[in-house]
UniProtKB/TrEMBL annotation:
Any single Pfam family the record assigns to this protein: Aminotran_1_2
Alphabetically ordered keywords of this record: Aminotransferase, Pyridoxal phosphate, Transferase
Protein name, UniProt field: Aminotransferase
Origin organism lineage: Bacteria, Bacillati, Chloroflexota, Anaerolineae, Anaerolineales
Cofactors that this protein relies on: pyridoxal 5'-phosphate
GO biological process terms on file: alpha-amino acid metabolic process
GO molecular function annotations of the record: pyridoxal phosphate binding; transaminase activity
Domain Aminotransferase class I/classII large: 47-397
Subunit record text: Homodimer.
Family the entry assigns: Belongs to the class-I pyridoxal-phosphate-dependent aminotransferase family.
Length: 406
């Protein structure tokens, strides 16, 4: 009998779709295509020497630990290093708040597993991070979207959404993926206050916080929430779950990230993770600790900032130089992406066919909108390509705009 797989899958698989971005990346693998599609770091500045030396030291001195199973919460010296770094940067938290995950993407999935019942509403920005939608769709949630402007979520729209009692609010206040927009301090305070007022938890996703190229650092929501509660030098026990990752400050290939969570949430996330992968790669955790323990990552982040700052500027200048009237874009103060808006009525997904003929690619904006819309938008990444390639790619893209936009 021919097995009938299609009738066997769980109902939730109906909600799972392959990421448009991942499909697109396949199309852009042709070497002649300049892709602004993915969200990849610049490989030429991976700290290969430091990683290599750390691996050698680990195999020589700590192989019994590094090649063994580890605790689900993560390698304690690494957790402590991250707790100390958070505290140094203004969020006083302790090792018990910190959990290591196999990428932030796993953390997002674990949050879905721990918090989302079928039919729950999740409050999100629109557009928002596609990977979060992908992770949570499988838990059969619905989305409430909040209107935003260039300073972040609009408080009235947020309050309206909170009144509908979502399970949690998902926000990316620093250099958002996909738009590059950051929340102002006032808007951050408002999100923290309103979420507290309505008793709705916040998930703050912050992979890019350290990658600021201009302006002053602004406190995270987690920090503001902790300050509001007067929790200095204590276990953080507030209303926010914070996510960050080594993907953009060390390397995404090691799949290493962390969560800072209030104790009760931390223990549930840990239980959920036990069922997923027992523990995050022990070897990689020791490696990240060895690389980071004497402050190397602070130095390395300065290198990353310098390189991406230049690339961002090159992309902004090239857009200015080549783009026809009616096309606009964001001016991100950090991160990896900027967001282009075409005149109303144009469809960036359709336009992608023309762009690929010119050997240039981007991510159409529609897929970042959980309830639809944004068809005339697109995300451009500026971290991966070198300045010369960025210039050439934007010139090609602008040619597509000039020829095909209406
Ligand atoms: N959240 C956001 C906002 C991201 O941009 C990314 C990476 N593209 C992730 C989470 C996932 O990161 P990681 O590589 O740690 O899984």
């Amino acid at each position: 009998m021919q097995p009938d797989w299609s009738s066997k899958f769980a109902d939730r698989t109906q909600r799972m779709k392959g990421s448009a971005i991942r499909e697109l990346l396949k199309l852009t693998e042709r070497p002649e295509v300049i892709s602004f599609g993915g969200g990849m770091p610049a490989p030429e500045i991976f700290p290969v020497k430091e990683v290599g030396e750390a691996c050698e030291r680990i195999l020589k001195n700590y192989s019994e630990k590094a090649l063994q199973y580890g605790t689900t919460e993560g390698y304690n010296p690494l957790r402590q290093m991250l707790a100390d770094d958070a505290t140094k940067n203004g969020l006083s938290c302790q090792i018990d708040n910190v959990l290591i995950t196999s990428g932030s993407q796993q953390a997002l999935d674990l949050l879905g597993k721990v918090f989302i019942n079928p039919g729950d509403n999740i409050l999100v920005e629109s557009p928002t991070y596609l990977g979060a939608l992908q992770a949570w769709n499988a838990y059969e949630c619905n989305y409430i979207t909040v209107k935003s402007d260039k300073f972040g979520m609009l408080p009235d729209s947020l309050e309206e959404g909170l009144k509908k009692k979502p399970k949690f609010v998902y926000v990316l206040p620093n250099f958002q993926n996909p738009t590059g927009i950051s929340f102002s301090l006032e808007r951050r305070k408002k999100v923290v206050e309103l979420a507290d007022k309505y008793g709705i938890p916040i998930v703050e996703d912050d992979p890019y916080g350290k990658l600021r190229y201009e302006g002053e650092d602004i406190p995270t929501l987690t920090q503001l929430d902790s300050e509001m509660r007067g929790q200095k030098n204590a276990l953080y026990d507030g209303n926010v779950i914070y996510l960050s990752t080594f993907s953009k400050i060390l390397a995404p290939g090691i799949r290493l990230a962390w969560v800072i969570a209030p104790p009760l949430a931390a223990s549930r996330i840990t239980q959920a993770k036990q069922g997923v992968d027992l523990n995050t790669s022990t070897f990689n955790q020791l490696m990240a600790y060895e690389v980071g323990k004497d402050g190397f990552l602070d130095t390395h982040v300065k290198v990353i900032r310098k390189v991406y700052h230049e690339r961002r500027d090159v992309m902004l200048d090239a857009l200015e130089e080549h783009c026809p009237k009616g096309v606009s874009w964001t001016h991100p103060e950090g991160g990896l992406f900027l967001w282009v808006t075409l005149p109303e009525g144009n469809d960036s997904a359709e336009l992608m066919k023309e762009a690929l003929k010119e050997n240039v690619a981007y991510v159409p904006g529609g897929s970042f909108h959980p309830l639809g819309g944004g068809d005339n938008t697109m995300r451009l990444n500026f971290s991966f390509s070198n300045p010369q390639t960025i210039n050439e790619g934007i010139a090609r893209l602008a040619k597509v705009f000039r020829t095909h936009l209406h």
